[in-house]
Structure formats: C-alpha cells, structure tokens
Amino acid sequence: MTTLTIAIVVVFVLGYACIALESVTRVNKAAIALLMFVATWTLFMMDPASYIPNFSHELINAVIEKHLGSTATTLFFLMGAMTIVEIVDQNGGFNFVRDALRTTSKRRLMWRIVFITFFLSAILDNMTTSIVMVMVLRKLVDNRQDRLTFASLVIIAANSGGAFSPIGDVTTIMLWNKGLLTAAGVITEIFLPSLVSAVVPALIMQWMLKGRLDAPASTSTKEEESFTSRERKTIFCLGVGGLCFVPVFHNLTNLPPFVGILLVLGVLWTTIEIFYRKERYRHDSMKRRVSKVLGRIDMSTILFFLGILMAVSCLEEIKVLGLAGEWLNEVSCGNHYLVTGIIGVVSSIVDNVPLVAGCMGMYTNLVGDYAVDGLFWQLLAYCAGVGGSILIVGSAAGVVVMGLERISFGWYMKRISWLVAVGYFAGIFTYWVQNYIVAMLH
Length: 442
Known about the structure:
Blueprint: H1 3-20, H2 22-25, H3 29-44, H4 57-90, H5 95-101, H6 106-123, H7 126-140, H8 144-163, H9 170-177, H10 183-205, H11 222-226, H12 229-253, H13 257-276, H14 290-294, H15 299-317, H16 320-331, H17 336-346, H18 352-362, H19 375-387, H20 396-405, H21 409-415, H22 417-441
Helix pairs in contact: 1-3, 3-15, 4-7, 4-12, 4-13, 4-15, 5-7, 6-7, 6-8, 6-10, 7-8, 7-20, 8-10, 8-19, 8-20, 9-18, 10-19, 10-22, 12-13, 16-18, 17-19, 18-19, 19-22
C-alpha cells in the first residue's frame, strides 16, 4: 500500500470510530459521514493517476459521478419509501394493522413482530420493511426502552428475511441479476439458516422481556379521524401494496427500483389529493398535503447514507476492498465457511454491497463451489445479508431504524450485537448440517 492509500484508510477508520462513539462525542453521525466522504476523496485527488490509468480530469469526474449515481439510486429509494410509509402512517393507514397486532404480552408481541418482519422483508426488502414495522411499533409500544428492544428485533428479522429472498436484500439482488444464484436455489437453501438466525436471538431475548406492555397513549389525530375506514384501507393498500409491486415493476421494465418507488409515490400522492378535494376535507387547506409530510422526512439519515456510501466507494476505487478479499482467501486456504463468515462480520462495519461486488469480480471461474447456486455464493448471500445486523450501522435496515428511533451505536452493540452473533453463527452451522445431510442422502 502507498502512503496515500494508508492515509485514506486511516481517515475512514477514524471517522467510523467517531460515528460509533456518537453518544460520547455528541456529534451527529451525518456530519462525520459527510466529512469522511469529502476527506477520503480529497486525499484520493492528491494522486489520482496512481489509481486510475490514463488519468484525466474528465475521467475522474466520470468516476465520481458513477459512484454518486449509484449512491443516488439508494437515496431516492430510501426517501421514496420513507415518504410513502409516512403518508400511510399520518393518514391512519396502519390502524387496522396495529389493531391486529395489539397485545399486552411483551413476548407475544415479540414473536408476532419477528415473524411478520421476517416474511414481509422477503416480499418487500429489508429497508422498506424496517420503516413499515417501526411505524407500526410506534402505535403499539409507548415505553421507549421497550420500543428500542423491539426495533432491534425488527433489524435482525428484516435482514434475515431479506437474505433468503432474491429480492429481499440488495446483495441477493446483485447475485441474482448476475446469474450466480437462482430464485429457487436461494429460497430452498438459505431459508432455514435465515430463519434460525432470526429465531435464535428472539429465543434468547424472550427471557429478557418480562412483564406486560403499558397501553400506548392514543396516537389518533384529527387527520386520521376525518378519513373513513375505507379511505384509510385504500391508502394502506396503495402504499404497502405499491411497495410490494416495486420488485415486479423492476423485473418487468428493468428500470432501477427507485423508479418504481417514485411511481408508487406519485400514485399515492395523486390519490390523497383526490380525497382532499371532497367537501368535508376542504377546511383542512394545505396542512395535510403530502408536501407537508415531506418536511418530516429525516434528512440527517439521508445525508448519513450519502457520506458513508461515498466514503466506502473511495475505498472500493483504491482497491482496498478487493485486496482484503484476496488476502482472506489466502489465509483461509479456500475454506468457504471461514471466508464468507469473515465477510459477513466485516459487512457489519462497511457496506456489504462493495464487499459482494468485490467477490463477484474476484471469482469468475464459475465451476465447483463457485458454480451457479454453488456453496460459496449461497453462503455469501446469507453471510453478507445477516452479518450486517451485528452492528447497527452494518445494514440499510439498521441505519434506517437508527435514524427513526434514535438508537445509539453503543446501546445496540452492548445489548444486541452478541445476540445477533449467536444467531449468525447458528445459521452458518445450520447451513453446514443441511448440506451434510443432503450429501449423505446422495
């Protein structure tokens, strides 16, 4: 490594440490992430020719714009999904879901949340599912400490559920679109390990959840009350049903998922405007329009995503992640369980997308364990998806919940990380047993 490469890595590590210690430094993580983004790329520009062959200013602009474009698709998806869920929530769309889940038993609510989140994230995606479930939790749990615990379980279940579905997590989407996994292969082989990785932490957690829930304060608003039950259900079906339609739209048109999200937002927005044209709503004027909801979107979370993803893209550009992958392969002597297990743990620290992208670029000889639906790719899909739950900043779902519920990095690491790790390794062991049994039968 050159001195400049080492400096970029050091800046990233220091910035990440400040994010992890946000509760101590009391500096917003979004501010640190933006500084990381600017600092890493500024260092990169001190000697870009060492990283980019045939360097020119036009070429470097194209490189940065490529990474920014890739990041922007994630940001627009996130903003669209957050807006849709906020619209549904503000207009009472989640009321009947809340009523269906309502219980005073903490343990009973925990299992309902885990299983609904697990299966819903396979249909939607882990990030969108996390937003939906946190909104529902706010209507069910009034005590903040209890809600933080349930929100942490949402992160675990959402990432586990997304790992076994070809459309549930961005990394499985990448592997599926590349032809390294088939939909049937990833569902049949990864379902049981993913389920174990969600159930094991919940089994441990249920012994910590004692007593009963306090009845939450009424969250009904004048806006909710003025809509009829039919209108609220229409809003819910358009919002959540539209989110389910996004993967279908992507497969039909091959347009990026964020385009589908914007389509759903446009349809839902138009429907809300039509509802407001009715005589009984005219007195509300503009205060209930979607434009007001947009003002409540947490922009600090969006900016945090921007800073982190662009800083990681700089590490990708200087080939640090690729070198790390090659080193892992060498020291593990080709043990796929060890390599993918470590990649999963690392994905809780840095974004799993460039890690998986690096692996896809490293292993191009698609034979044996690297063939389509081979052991390596299935383990990679599981480990990269589930491993991100070990730290709260290791996945899109974690970052979203962190922003919505103001969960600190230290609180999660102290109380939840070890639970996730137990479930994570239990899932890997389940996959090994599953494959051992299949091999014995054959």
